[in-house]
Amino acid sequence: MTEKPAPLQEAERLSWIDAARGLAILGIFMVNMPAFNAPFFLYGGGDEYWTSTTDQFVESLIDIFFQASFYTLFSLMFGFGLYMMKERLELKNMNYRSVIVRRLLVLIGFGLIHAFFIWHGDILLSYGVLGLVMMAFFNVSPKALLIWAFSMLAVLVVPFTLALYGVRNMLGGFSNEARVQNALQNYGNGSLIDIWQQNLNDWMYSNNLGTVPFLALSLIPMFLIGAYIAKKRWLHEPEFHMKSIKRWWAVTGLLFILFKAGPYVIGNPEWLQLLQDNIGGSASAVFYLLSITLVFRTKAGSKILKPLTWVGRMSLSNYIIQSVISFGLFYSAGFGLYGQVSPLSSVLLVLLIFTIQAAASKAWFVKFRYGPLEWLWRTLTYGKKQPLKRSVHQAS
Q1: Contact 312, 35 (CB under 8 A)
Q2: In what helix (H) or strand (E) does residue 178 lie, and over which residues does it extend?
Q3: Exposed e or buried b for every residue in 368-379, given b needs 16+ CB within 10 A?
Q4: Is the pTM of this model over 0.90?
Q5: pLDDT at 50
Q6: Which residues contact 162 (CB under 8 A, 6 or more apart)?
Q7: What is the rounded average pLDDT of the residues 58-68?
Q8: DSSP code at position 208
Q9: CA torsion angle for 36, 37, 39, 41 (degrees, to 10)?
């Protein structure tokens, strides 16, 4: 008898993977909130508004430890999760392609709503579209996955870094004051229609044809590295792969320091930014994932990291909730704080909101099996209403 496809059951979960997803949600929020509450990430000019030593120090810390590190970690986990799904469906003699395509189409739907009605900085739409490319890589060898991943990163980083170095004296201080003022007006004082119109303009500005290759060559390599780790089963059975895990942890940690923090030793020149984000950011993503896995091997570490697992188990819901909260805080449809929150205040807000999310996620799982959007995603993917409430209430 042919088995029907079904989502991963609670007993099959690997807690350190959920913790890594939770950490990714925290890191993404740390970068997203400043981009949500002011136009400077897109259009430049932040140095003219945030001039204090404290704010500039905070921005440097975010750049080193968070920028390009956590959307890459989430991308890695996305590739890991897709391959796990493929493997699980194959074991049940199921056509994994149709299920995964449905899963990605639903994700594209979530992304369209999020991108055009809540925030232009959405990543779900990109994951859904570029995730379809993974179909071509599911059955290649682990070695081939790494070759493809490193080759894509090299194609992106090497020629463009050399080109930027060639015109390094012409770089510096990009700022589009007209766009900055439009964003400040429409998000901070405009109507809901003004907000949506500005959001659409910002999405089109950051997702034009010229940016698509950069996005693809940033995300797909991380999907492939995630699939590589899944194929090697490092996170399934870490105790049997400690030598490889520790070797990769050391190498990626070194690359993290060299390419993320190293540029600050020489003044953080703009021509190094692509190298910093794509090599340093990719290395830091792997380093963070393996660090979580290693720390979870200890009793004290697993206890400290437990709150991250609650957030990670409903990472999609928490990601969208962060955007909804930010919409209400910063746009004129809510409290209208757009352009008024300093980098330090932004960090404090992130920590406060994330702490509340961790507590709320824990409370949610006392009564429910999945996060609300995770439940909807699973139901639409498998074409069958999934059980949401627990039959026996117990804390996770």
Answers
A1: no
A2: helix 177-189
A3: bbbbebbbbbbb
A4: yes
A5: 81
A6: none
A7: 94
A8: S
A9: -60
